[in-house]
């Protein structure tokens, strides 16, 4: 499978990349790890006349941790997220999730920025970033702006990012507490049938804070405040977990596809979320 | 569209060529450089038959544009061993029956090579997890895992003897 022809650009700084996007408008797209975009180009489901490869922009790489504040450059690969000791300490849920994405070869190339910016409902990082209440930095022709992950996703492949903007970094405050990223998939390399990101705070045997998001159960990730609220003030006993699951199930809108019919997906979503809450609580 | 001038260091040797930006690394390696060790299997980044090493990372060469690889160091199965001097991994795959039809084998061995660089003494579970991006339809994987564990042991013994 050979994609349609395009011009290749490899800018060495962000200004040059933004200038190329501005020059070519709708005809240009940025390339991060390429493991979503290149398959789409090979299938000719995506046509790109100007491909702007971000690999040579050093400012987009790396992980910085300052106390509880974490900043991850958009071009940081899944492999680098997994290998980073400081990040494993500050936000171990990221490592747990990244290990469940695709396979080793894809994780060497796939980037966190590409994963969150693409807007694919199957991607794991968007729901995780909503769980972490992360903030995305977008650079555009008029400077940079910040958008909350919880406000970024509009519909499948539709996000708050404008065509002439580049998502440059992801930031969040590490909250500690118990965590779990639970994912049901048919096989290695598949997207989730259902996945859940859960972070719980525990204070004196009682849940004092909870953040819960799920993946691939609607055309955007689903962060449900009410699911978390159902756990706060409880000891995460089975009844409370059941209420949290019900609150989440009221929010998801799965559709039938090759991963199963709607009823099955709702069932799996409940099982996965229950497991994630139990595991997060056991670590809190 | 115009062709690009691309420089690759392949198996230690600098190679220059012209390619359209849309040409995939696997096509350049196989058709322009005559390195037919890496295979095209699924052509959708699932099967791992096209696995090569690029700048110290295992990549699926069917999902990398040659343009992206411009300036990179590439290692293919041809760079690991030769018919007269098999690599330890190749020898182990032969001894432990880690292949039947052989189609997946170059990708398997190239990936296993990188895995053992990063984790020289893996457990069986770590081998299975680290090889999860390579599919084999013949062996059922048991002998592939055995071969990689045996190669790791052999490489560690040689390393210890040298120290």
From TrEMBL, chain A:
FAD-binding PCMH-type domain sequence ranges: 1-177
Pfam families: CO_deh_flav_C, FAD_binding_5
EC code(s) of this entry: 1.2.99.2
Sorted UniProt keywords: FAD, Flavoprotein, Oxidoreductase
Single GO MF descriptor: oxidoreductase activity
Entries under SMART domains matching the protein: CO_deh_flav_C
Major enzyme class: oxidoreductase
Designated name of the protein: Carbon monoxide dehydrogenase medium chain
Organism: Lutibaculum baratangense AMV1
Higher taxonomy: Bacteria, Pseudomonadati, Pseudomonadota, Alphaproteobacteria, Hyphomicrobiales
UniProtKB/TrEMBL annotation, chain B:
GO-annotated molecular function: 2 iron, 2 sulfur cluster binding; metal ion binding; oxidoreductase activity
Natural source organism: Lutibaculum baratangense AMV1
Pfam families: Fer2 (PF00111), Fer2_2 (PF01799)
Protein name, per record: Carbon monoxide dehydrogenase small chain
EC number: 1.2.99.2
First and last residue of the signal peptide: none
Record key words, sorted: 2Fe-2S, Iron, Iron-sulfur, Metal-binding, Oxidoreductase
Enzyme class, UniProt record, top EC level: oxidoreductase
SUPFAM superfamilies named in the record: 2Fe-2S ferredoxin-like (SSF54292), CO dehydrogenase ISP C-domain like (SSF47741)
Residue ranges annotated for the 2Fe-2S ferredoxin-type domain, each copy included: 4-80
Superkingdom: Bacteria
């Amino acid at each position: 499978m050979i994609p349609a022809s395009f011009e290749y650009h490899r800018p060495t700084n962000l200004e040059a990349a933004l200038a190329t996007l501005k020059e070519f408008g709708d005809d240009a797209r940025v390339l991060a790890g390429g493991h979503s975009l290149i398959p789409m180009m090979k299938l000719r489901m995506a046509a790109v006349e100007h491909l702007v490869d971000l690999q040579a922009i050093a400012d987009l790489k790396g992980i910085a941790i300052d106390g509880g504040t974490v900043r991850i450059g958009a071009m940081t690969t899944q492999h680098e997220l997994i290998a980073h000791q400081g990040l494993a300490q500050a936000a171990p849920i990221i490592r747990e999730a990244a290990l469940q994405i695709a396979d080793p070869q894809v994780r060497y190339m796939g980037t966190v920025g590409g994963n969150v910016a693409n807007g694919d409902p199957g991607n794991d990082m968007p729901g995780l970033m909503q769980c972490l209440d992360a903030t995305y930095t977008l650079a555009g022709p008029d400077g940079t702006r910040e958008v909350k992950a919880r406000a970024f996703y509009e519909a499948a492949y539709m996000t708050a990012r404008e065509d002439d903007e580049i998502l440059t970094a992801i930031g969040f405050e590490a909250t500690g507490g118990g965590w779990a990223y639970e994912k049901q998939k048919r096989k290695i390399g598949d997207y989730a049938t259902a996945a859940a990101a859960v972070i719980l705070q525990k204070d004196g045997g009682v849940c004092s804070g909870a953040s819960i998001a799920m993946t691939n159960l609607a055309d955007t990730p689903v962060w449900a405040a009410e699911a978390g609220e159902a756990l706060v003030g409880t000891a995460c006993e089975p009844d409370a977990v059941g209420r949290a699951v019900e609150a989440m199930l009221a929010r998801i809108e799965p559709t039938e596809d090759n991963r199963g019919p709607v009823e099955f997906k709702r069932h799996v979503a409940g099982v996965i979320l229950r497991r994630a809450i139990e595991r997060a609580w056991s670590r809190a | 569209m115009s062709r690009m001038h691309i420089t690759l260091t392949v198996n230690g040797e600098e190679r220059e060529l012209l390619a359209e930006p849309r040409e995939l690394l696997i096509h350049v390696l196989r058709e322009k450089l005559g390195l037919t060790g890496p295979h095209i299997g699924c052509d959708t980044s699932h099967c791992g038959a096209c696995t090569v090493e690029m700048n110290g990372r295992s990549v699926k060469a069917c999902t990398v544009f040659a343009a992206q690889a411009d300036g990179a160091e590439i290692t293919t199965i041809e760079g690991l061993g030769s018919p007269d001097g098999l690599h330890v991994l190749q020898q182990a795959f032969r001894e432990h029956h880690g292949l039947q039809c052989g189609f997946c084998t170059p990708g398997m061995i190239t990936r296993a090579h990188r895995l053992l660089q990063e984790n020289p003494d893996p457990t069986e579970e770590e081998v299975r997890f680290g090889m999860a991006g390579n599919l084999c339809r013949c062996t059922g994987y048991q002998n592939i895992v055995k071969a990689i564990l045996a190669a790791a042991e052999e490489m560690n013994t040689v390393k210890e003897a040298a120290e």
